[in-house]
Amino acid sequence: MSAAELDALIEDATVDTYDEIEAVNGFLAVIDEHLALPFSTTVLGVEVTVVEVDLTNDHRVIARCMREGFRQDIGLLELPLPQPPPDGAHWVEAFRRWAGC
């Protein structure tokens, strides 16, 4: 997506937010609504399945990853997206742009 398209998504996700915490919650809402789950990706050379996107107590958006019954939460900003990306991944890219990643 172009920078202008990502900026439009950022505007949609953060409309009516007054601080960073509200903006993160706005992104969580649109990502939760639009990102197709589950999807597989590779983290540190290991294939995992992303089953959920959630918010931590310190207001970080995480991807809940599963593999063979084990769970690991990874910051959504650090999560490598697969190619091709899942439907709705453009919201993750907008979140990354907003966060300066």
The helix/strand order is HHEEEEH
Helix/strand class: alpha+beta
* SS strand fraction: 25-35%
Number of domains: 1
Kindly report how far apart the N and C termini lie.
15 Å
**How many beta strands in the DSSP annotation?**
4
- Which descriptor suits the 3D outline? globular
Spans with pLDDT under 50 lasting ≥5 residues? none
User: Largest sheet at a glance?
Assistant: 4 strands, antiparallel
Characterise this structure:
This is Calcium binding. It comes from Actinacidiphila cocklensis. With 101 residues, the chain is an alpha+beta fold. It has one domain (3-99). The chain contains 3 helices and 4 strands, in the order H-H-E-E-E-E-H. A 4-stranded antiparallel beta sheet has the order 1-2-3-4. Helix 1 crosses helix 3 (89-99) and helix 2 (20-34) runs antiparallel to helix 3. The radius of gyration is 13 Å and the shape is globular.
Question: What would the keywords be for this entry?
Answer:
101 residues, alpha+beta, four-stranded antiparallel β-sheet, 3 helices, globular
What is the gist of this entry?
This protein is α+β, with helices and mostly antiparallel strands. Helix content is 38%, strand content 28%. The chain has one domain.
Describe the secondary structure blueprint for this structure:
Blueprint: H1 3-14, H2 20-34, E1 39-43, E2 46-55, E3 61-67, E4 70-75, H3 89-99
Helix pairs in contact: 1-3, 2-3
